[in-house]
Amino acid sequence: MHPDHSPTTLAAPQDGAPNSKNQSLSALITGLLALALVGLGLVACGSPGDPNSATTAEQTARGGAMRDVHSYARPDEVAVDHIDLDLSVDFEQQRLIGRASLTLKHHSDATSLHLDTRQLDIRAVTLDDGEETTFELGPEDPRLGSELTIAIQPTTQRVNVFYESRPQAAAVQWLEPAQTAGGEHPFLFTQSQAILARTWVPCQDSPGVRFTYSATVRVPSELMAVMSASNGETKTDDGVYSFEMPQPIPSYLLALAVGDLEFRALDDRSGVYAEPSVVEKAAWEFAETPAMIDAAEELYGPYRWERYDILVLPPSFPFGGMENPRLTFATPTILAGDRSLVALIAHELAHSWSGNLVTNATWNDFWLNEGFTVYLERRIMEAIKGPDYAAMLALLGRQDLESGIASIGPQDPDTHLFLDLAGRDPDDGMTEIAYEKGYDLLRMMEETVGRPTFDAFLLSWFESNAFKSQTTTGFIDYVESELIQGDEELAAELDLDAWIYGPGLPDNATRVESSAFTAVEAQVAAWLAGTPAEALDTANWSSHEWLHFLRGLPEELSQEQMAELDAAFGLSASGNSEVLHAWLHHVIANRYSEGYAALEAFLTGMGRRKFLQPLYQRMADSDDTLAMAKSIYAKARPGYHSVSTNTIDDILSWQQ
Ligand code: BES
Ligand code: ZN
Predict the structure, then answer these.
(1) pTM of whole model > 0.85?
(2) Secondary element (H or E) of residue 609
(3) Class of 353-501 per CATH?
(4) Is 424 exposed, middle or buried (0-12, 13-18, 19+ CB in 10 A)?
(5) According to CATH, what is the number of the domain 1-46+66-259?
(6) Catalytic residue at 435?
(7) Which residues of the chain are modeled with pLDDT < 70?
(8) What does the angle CA 70 – CA 208 – CA 299 come to, to the nearest 5 degrees?
C-alpha cells in the first residue's frame, strides 16, 4: 500500500495499476469501515489492535492472524482453520470443478467473510449444512484477483463454496501428452507460491494464515493424483484419491499434480514419484535424500511432516523446486545422471524447517524463508559431502549475489533484506537478495558468535516458532533476546540494521573461499596463456567446477576459441543443465552459431525460469539476437507455465 493512502490497515489491497473507479470505490468503503471501526475502538494505529503493527505474540494471541497487502482476507476477524476440497479434474474443459468447505474460527462478531479469488467461477455458497447465502465478487485486480465477500453469522461454522477454476488459472498448467515424458497421457500441476493459490482454491491467501486441509480429488482412472499431503503409493481403480494434511500450512503450500505416475521408495519415510520412464533415474539421482533428512534433523530438530517424498515433474515446471510439504515438486533438469545437482533437494527439504514450519508472515519477509533455507541447504550439503563441497556452493552463491546486486543497482531498496512490495507483485522480491544476502547474514552471524552458539540459536528459533509465521522484526527481537542479551559490542559487530534495512552487501560479510575453485582459476589462466583446452587439468571436475570455469572465461571469445572449448569438452552437448546454461551465455555473447541448435533445443525443451530469463535477456540485449529470441519464443511459449511467460513476455515486449 502506498504511504499516502489512508493510515488504517483496513484498506483493501491496492495495486499499482490504475483503475480509478475501483480505487475510489474501495477507498470510500475503506474510509467508512475505518471510521466505524475506529469508533468502535477496534483500530488504533500502532496499538495492539492494528493487525499490521502487531508483534508476533499479539498476533498469536489473536489466532496468528495478520493483515497482508497482497491479500483481501481479514483473518483477524474470522480465520479459516481447515479447508476440505472435493474437486473433479476435467482435462477436456481444463477446469477443476467442485467445492471448497472452509471451517471458520471467529475472532470478532463479523458478519462477512473475505476471501481471495482470482478468475474463479463461483456457482453458489452455502453455510454449514446447506443454507444458501449471499456473496459478492469485487472488481478484478490483475494480480490480486477479486475479493469474495460472503455473508455469514458470528455462529457460522462452515462455508461451502461451489466453484470452477478457469482454463487460464495462473497456478495451473494443463499439459498435452506431447509435453510429458511418456507422450501418452495429459498431466496437470499447480504452483501456488506466492499468490496463485487463489486461482484454484478460494482461500485466505496470505502466508500469515495457517489451516489444515483434506481433499477428495477425482481424476481419469488411468492417472494418479498427488498433493502436498498424505499420498498413496499406487493408482486407485476408480480414479478417486483422498488426502489429509493434518499439520497447519499457509495457502501457498497447497499443491496438486495429476499424471501417469509411479512411486519408488528410497527408504521407509521417503520416496520418488515420476512418470514411469523417469522414475528409476530419479530414484538413483535422489538416493542421498534419507541421509539429508538425517543430517537436517541432527542440526535443527525432528522432521515434523512424517514423510518426505519428491515428485519429478515434466520439464515445463517453472522452478527448480517447490517445497510443497511432504511432497517437494522438482524440475527434471536436475536429473544430471551424476547426483551433482541434488543441493536443490537439500534446499527444498530444508524448507521443512525454514518456511513450512516457521513461515514468512508476509512476502516482505521472504528472506526469512529463502535466506534461512540457503543457509540450511549448505549445512546439509556440508554434512553429507564435506566442507570443500559446501564451499564451492557458497562461492557460486556469492557470485550470484554480486551480479544480482549489480543488476538491481547497489543502492536500490530492493537490495534490502526487508522489502516493500506493496502495490507490486510479490514475485518482484524473488531475487538473489532474499536467497544469498539472507544466507550471508546467517553465515556472518555464525562466524561472529561461533558455530555451537549459532546452531543452538537456530534450533530454538525453529522449536519456539513451529507452525507459526514470523516477521523480520520478530527475528530481530529474537536475536536481541537470545543472542545479543544487552551486549552492545556484539550488537555493533552484527549490525543487523545494515543487513536488513540497508543496501548491498555490508562490510562485515564473511570472506568466502574455495581451494577447488582456485585450482580452476589456474586452468582458466593456463588456457588463456596458450595451453590447449584438451591439455588442461580438468580430471574429476564436478559440475560446480565447470560452472566456475565457464563463469571465469572472458566475455569475448573468438570463434576458434569457442570451437576449441566445445570440441574438447562437448559443452554444446552437455547433459548437465547448469553447465549447458552457463555455456549458452558464451554462445549468445559470441554469436557462436554452431551452438544455436543446442540453444534452441534447451529453450524449447524446458520451462525453468531461472534458465530462460537470463538467456532470453541476453538475446534481447542486442538487435541481431533479438529476432532469434522472438522466433524461439514463438515456438516455445505455448509450452511454458504462466510464471515463466509473465517474465519472458516482459523481456521481449511480447504481445499476444
Ligand atoms: N520456494 C521457492 C520457489 C518460489 C519462490 C516459488 C517464490 C514462487 C515464489 C523454492 O524453494 C526455491 O527457492 N527454488 C529454487 C531452487 C533453489 C535451489 C534456490 C529454484 O526454483 O530455482
Ligand atoms: Zn527456496
Answers:
(1) yes
(2) helix 609-620
(3) mainly alpha
(4) middle
(5) 2.60.40.1730
(6) yes
(7) 1-66
(8) 125
